[in-house]
Amino acid sequence: MNPDSSARPRAEWRRALLDYLGLAIALLLLVAIFSLATRHFFSLTTFRTIANQIPSAMLIATGMTYVLIIAGIDLSVGSVLSLCGIVLGLSLTQWRLPLPAALGLAVVAGAACGAFNGAVSIRWSLPTFIVTLGMMEIARGGAHFLSRSQTLYIGSRVEWISGWTLPGLGVSLPFVLALVIVVAAQVVLTRTVFGRYLVAIGTNEEAVRLSGIDPRPVKVTVFVLAGVLTALAAIIDASRFQSANPNAGTGFELQAIAAAVIGGTSLMGGRGSVLRSFFGVLIIAVLNNGLAAVGAKDETKRLVTGAVIIAAVILDQYRQRRAARPRA
Amino acid sequence: MLELRRLGKSYASFALAEVSLELRPGEVHALVGENGAGKSTLSKIIAGIVQPDSGTMALGGQPYAPASRKAAEHRGVRMVMQELNLIANLTVAENLFLDQLPRRWGWIQRDVLNRQAREALAQVGLSAIEPDQPVQTLGIGQQQLVEIAAGLSRRCQVLILDEPTAALTDPEIERLFAQIARLKARGVGLIYISHRMEEIRRVADRLTVLRDGRLVATRPAAEVALDEIVRLMVGRDLGENLPAQARPPGPVALRVRGLTRGEVVRDVSFEVRRGEILGFAGLMGSGRTETMRLIFGADRADAGALYLGGSETPVRFASPREAVRAGIALLTENRKEQGLLPPLPIRANLTLAHLEAVSGPAGWIPPEAERRAAERWREAMQIRCASVEQPVGELSGGNQQKVLIGRWLERDCDVLIFDEPTRGIDVGAKFEIYQWLARLAGQGKAIIMVSSDLKELLAVCDRIAVMSAGRLAATFHRAEWSQDKIMAAALSGHLQPAVS
Hints:
Number of strands of chain A: 2
Order of helices and strands of chain A: HHHHHHEHHHHHEHHH
Helix content of chain B: 25-40%
Oligomer: heterodimer
Number of strands of chain B: 21
């Protein structure tokens, strides 16, 4: 047998730790910098605020990570988010549906958009970039059409979703839910057949097909999941703002891609981690809140965030190259 | 005018050795030999695409050692490649003169360009083609002619044509031959690579036979008989065959009837039994790989059916998934593009085709179960690696191939198709793979082995089917086969005379 079989789990742990160490250090560094720069930043209130801001971004980044791993991209998530929000709002205010049915309908809308993205790109062998770009316009148009371009005020019926907080810590139900989903998605990715197929398809789809596996249902499922997670994000946002806005979610797709890329997900497919994308979401959120705390204007925030994204990818390349060096 | 002295070039699994050749002005010199005999390597050295390890060349009495294709073209040596090198969405004219577009102030002079292109096209009888037509609107044969026109239209002393007629119709071939005659009259020396013996005898002045990277003979083309060429190509010095164990042939595992796809695979019928290794011989492009892909459901067949076991019910697989579920495995010809997941660990590559075996409910993969399965195949296949967690892309070709074979053995299929299983791998790994094939046949598997290495087919197989130009030309039992017969069968589809 292999002599180092007992040492292997430990080596694996060390590699996993190293994988997250860089991101954790970057995050702590940002927190430290902002804490030193301004007295207002380092407080429970700030962290609570961040935790309650990011659940929708966490969910969308999770779906996006799956899509990127199969070498796809989903540009439609922002628009689909607004469409799902409008569907939820209309169900409650105009169609007078009970809350569970309204929530269900919003999720179905998200799933349907995802299914369309997946099925159309597979049936006509189109790049997902193109199909989801089309869906981005279709969903946005649909949201405006259904709402007559008006923001819908939903009122208190959905307030409880984000109103309830975990006793003691003060973080909201959506954050807990999003965290559970992130962890579950990471476990599915690394420990199940479905997750293995995602990575394999993103690495070499033809090899997967010729190994007797049909990649098409797997790919459709990924896009449906992205749609469902987007719908959940829409529900959370509707609850936070107690309204549904047909202009909601603009630019969310790029934020989600940025978070995934900061977390080391490859746009070429085959490589990515939901947990690391979560760190990406955290880094962007800390950056935004920290810069706001030091009084930076919106344009400064965008400049800095852009620079951080590029720097993160450059650093990740170095990490990759070191990991790829042949081991003795 | 072109002289080659003791040229040599070695690769990991092939070597060209001590080839000396002389090309005279106005001569058409044919190169013939089996796949992998060294024709392509030799012509690429002459065209500057590959540099020799040893030996020298001289052109017109001057030393000639081109460092690149461009350098060779500068000295008037050009090669028309077998694979098309055209850029599909540029126009015909742009493709013809891409390296010397007529320009003024940086602007392309379309009128000059198109006039030059029209002249070049007329030479190969493509007057009907507009120079500003995108190349992708042409058929394969016409594209081949454009490629040839690009070679013919430049001033050159030496022109190499690699299988120029492979995709051409008879009238097109006639026009090509007329052009060759014109070039000969101008004193250009031509090297002509082809499998079509009739063509060679019509067009060539002399022919040189290569075998295993060595020059076997150079003869005047008019004097040499077909069976002599075949004998020269195959050689007699084989010797060390693996002793084939006598295996009792079992029941039929797979019958193939009338399998057809376009012109590539035409009406192929055969059967393979349990405990049998059936070889598939043939020249490059004879349709062997395509036949296997049809059986495996990787491509759609136009016609034909498969019968599994003793069943009388015809089946046809719409996808590899269906084929695998029915117990058929295909080890693809192209490891990198169609088999491996290079950055993923050996473990994940080994278990890919049969994750069901190591996973529980809801598709959960217990890491220990998967690792155990991977370790088992690492040991059984003797995959040399640091650990099963090593990325498979870091392994040698032979060990990568063993991983892919292990992947299929984990799946435990009844019919195993191996397409070029030993291509590009070292001798030791080759021998291990032969032993595995024999062991699997001994276990009652039905094995199909496609190979361009006739010697290994002769050593390993119980029967050999020979394909030629998309058809199954002949099938030989061990008792009745000979290299000459197999080679003649492989060439048979190309023997139709060029004139219709």
